[in-house]
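User: Can you fold this complex?
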Amino acid sequence: MAKHHVSALINGNPVEYLCDAQQTLLEVLRDELNLTGTKEGCATGDCGACSVTIDGRLVCSCLTLGAEIDGKAVQTIEGMATGTELHPLQTKFLELAALQCGICTPGMLVAAKALLERNPDPTEDEVRYWLAGNLCRCTGYNKIIEAVLAAAGEMRKG
Amino acid sequence: MAETIVYPERELKVIGTRPVRPDGVPKVTGLAQYGADFNLPGMLWGKILRSPHAHARIGSIDTSKAQALPGVKAVITAADLPEQKFEYLGPERVAVNYWHMTRNILAREKALYEGHAIAAVAATSKAIAEEALKLIEVDYEVLPHVIDVDEAMQPDAPLLFEDMITRGVEPPPAKPSNVSKRIEYKLGDVAKGFAAADAVVEASYKTKPVHQGYIEPQACLARYDSDGQAEVWSSSQGHFVVRTFTSRLVGMKVADLRCHAAEIGGAFGGKTVVYVEPVAVVLSKKSGHPVKIMMSREEVFKATGPTSGASMTIRIGVMNDGRIVAAEGVFKYQAGAFPQSPVMNGCMCSFAPYDIPNVRTLGFDVVSNRPKTVAYRAPGSPISAFAAESTMDLAARKIGMDPIEFRLKNIARPGAKTVFGTTLNHAGFAETLQALKKHPGYTAPLGKNQGRGVAAGYWFNGGGESSATVHVNEDGTAVVAEGSPDIGGSRASIALMAAETLGIAYESVRPVIADTNSVGYTQATGGSRVTFATGMTVINACNKVIDEMCARAAKLWKVDRADVVWEDGHARPAGKRAGEFEPLSFKAIAAKRTATGGPISASASINAEGQAPGFSAQFCDVEVDPDTGYVKILRFVAAQDVGRAIHPAYCEGQIEGGVVQGIGWALNEEYIYDRDGHMENPGFLDYRIPVASDVPMIESILVEVPNPKHPYGVKGVAEANIVPPMAAVANAIESATGLRLTDLPMSPPKVLAALDSRR
Amino acid sequence: MRYAKPKSVDEAVALLAAEKGLARVLAGGTDLLVQMRSRRALPDLMVDCKAIADMTSIAAEDGGIRFGAATACMALVENAQFSAACPGVTDAIKLIGSIQVKGRASVGGNVCNASPAADSVPALIAAGATARIASPRGSRDVAVETITTGPGKTCLARDELLVSFLVPRKQRNCGDAYLRFTPRTEMDIAVVSAGVNLKLDATGICREARVSLGAVAERALLVAEAGAALVGSKVDNAALERLGAAASAACRPIDDKRGTREFRIKVAGVLARRAAQIALDRTGKEN
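Assistant: Here's the predicted assembly.
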């Protein structure tokens, strides 16, 4: 079976790739495009480490086929900072020690950004429930939640 | 909210601050490279064939069809690894037996658990490698299996090793069994103690194996060159451990194997051994290509180490005034398919927080058809503490004493003897309990169906071998090369201690985890040892650098070395030359290195001693839904003696993370097996680790009772925090419902069944 | 495996009908891709239905809301008109996996995956929802409770495609709710669940009630006796007790890794009572 030819915008850049029908977006990102910031923790949609957005919608890239992306816009962790300027979420994660091992961090950041785009002033509970699909085994979540709330505050100040 | 006891000896400039970690930015931009993120030209994908049976004799393995599949470049079985001698090496608590280890890497005579590695392939794509696995034909003779520890100890239980004679029994038993080892510790006279007690409480407990649950599956990349040298990049707590184990298992010289510590996506003890590294090296050797192996989550659950499940009985004898006069514990721990559970630690730690005159602990190390257990955060201690600290609660209730008061009454203070023969020479336990007691939440009122539980926990903390080199750069900055993989921010604490010692800015110190060819031997990141032991090594190296800086200043000033002192980041003339020259800064001397003797660098390698034990005391509030058995954690407060918080945010993070792991262990995490010995929940959907919405903000209290044996008072902080939560939750459930739960996890069906049994 | 992305229902149905091997419909993919990874499903053809407008749109129709079977759950949750008109179904959809999973998962997929524990199904049944199924022979509308026939099994023929659902709009005198029990607050599969839909008359007497239970049998149950327990009452404590008992009595669950038989039977009654109470609280509210 011939490979699928896909044209997409990835982190704002036009990208073309070939993939097998069964290859997931996660595999395409990591194995074909060398965008290894998106992590595989389970490959079954249960950990959130592979979170990306497709046309602004937060999804698990492990539950998406690479072939589905034709004509879509994908944002990954690699596209979060603007040049050398970190996103406020990235800055707050660093300042407030919201990561220990850091493997869940890309997914957490992508998911938190999607939250703040919809809800710029979330409560602690809203952050906890929004991020429930992003497992972290190191932090007990305290500092992640604190960092998201702090970044939201920062972003509201503009 | 840190309870602080002021360190008496020196004022600190950067230690105790909360700077951004040096390795932070690549971790928030996705550029940090973890175990699965390395690639090489010509790289192949390795995949491992695993046993579908819990227990089976392996007749033959036919790999010819797999071998013939286009794109397959190598297929290996245990026959490609050298046989190892049967012997237990190293200290008993952490002894290694390579005969067992090689059989866990690739099964030989028998498959001992579902998921046991049987063979491996390397192919040009993942899909081809997977296809090839299906073409390997294995002739299995399925054998009866045993999962539960009590069942595995029955005389008629299926035997994993037909020749295993229990160690630690004199005279040795004539018949083989699944009991690998019996250990016993005694202090005083337990019978006498119980006879004198006003009251005796006793209960039996069971726990299930739980997995470390790191989010990053094991992964590595290996390259084996035709001259016999090889290189490995892997996600490990100790790349020197990877080198030791892999070189031995593959049969190569240590110097021929260079190991790199990839960034590591969580481990908690689970990455202190090797699984995929020797397989990748041999596949690379056989194929002539670099080979990458990534475990799936299912493989992680089925084939890497959880910690033990256990069956335990505790007896505590107590006087009406609250003094404990006798304590006894029997601990039966599952080791998994090969011996060496952490039962010895369980026996040692269970009553270690208390000064009890008569103690006896008895442990059994038992094999069964499950994955081999491996270290998990304070290995062994949380299991025995669940039993011991639950029974402590029963004892406090029996005599009507507040649970913190009861523990304070019996707390071990310096001079107290432990059951394992040592004498406690550190303060900190009582201070931690007192800090917990002072927390306003401890006396806050509780609502309907709510309860509060207290528990405490002990962990040894580790010292051991560490190496580091400090290089001074011409602009006055410094690079610290050390050998401890950084899991939770240790590069930040290392840089803080180096900056403090050298008297330069934190941002002027850049730490790096050097590969095995670039720094001296360093033990794995484990046992809460890195900030203590590697920190001490780095401080030693920094002190050597300072000594050299003084020598360089003496040279510049043309004075005796003895007439130069280091103060506040500067070399100053002293003694008879005091005041003769302007002090020279670190930067100024660094700039003159060429003229004063060349590069300035110093190395240190130590076997660190003087670690202080870790102690954590916690309380939690729960609410139990009487109609569903659901237990909601309302509040969790954890006090821990951290010695000195080098980077307080990462100390808090250790406590917060340890407690939440403990909550998962208490309420929901467990290995579930079907009748055929297959794990039914090998994924994060049904192996339920806590999610963000399950838990409240964990409130940590950093108690700083400095360790006098460390230059900055460091005690390990990573592990003691996971010891108390299971008992704290059980004790809180009893407070809420009047019911004592003795079986982990305390999942809703169990809680509801207990509630119903009373109705 | 081949991948096709038809633009219309007719095209999709033609692809399904023509496929000699195993064809699977890709709506959200959150179950299917997991099954493929574990090799429980090895389709020869994947028919991606997300480019079909009828299958991804949400629109008012005949006193109800029609939504495409491949609409992402998050699109439904974030659609104010939908969540106001269908509160009980929204309760259920909100519980399907994480935000990420809901960003892909569809109600059509949830229904056709035919898990006895599917969250959307008891809520749809309680709400009296119907599904539109297309095939080369045309289309038919069926009640949701008739779709699942057993674990992993539906009434759909191999050339049939579930296109959309129609959920009656909540009326002022009506209320519905869905609750499930899981050991975790999120990221879990229902151990047991209950959807309740009530209609009151002007005096507050319950005139109609539909009660559906999930994860207590081989498929979600519509429990007539449980609904009858409420009809004629003011949904007071005595009626709720009768409801709970009828719900528990209807259960025929199994012991499995997610829960015991006893637990499911008991908690089914508890959830039915609690869901009925929420449904009652929602009556009288404007939508």
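Residues 35-143+212-303 of chain B form a domain with the Aldehyde Oxidoreductase; domain 3 fold (CATH 3.90.1170.50). Chain B has 20 helices and 26 strands.
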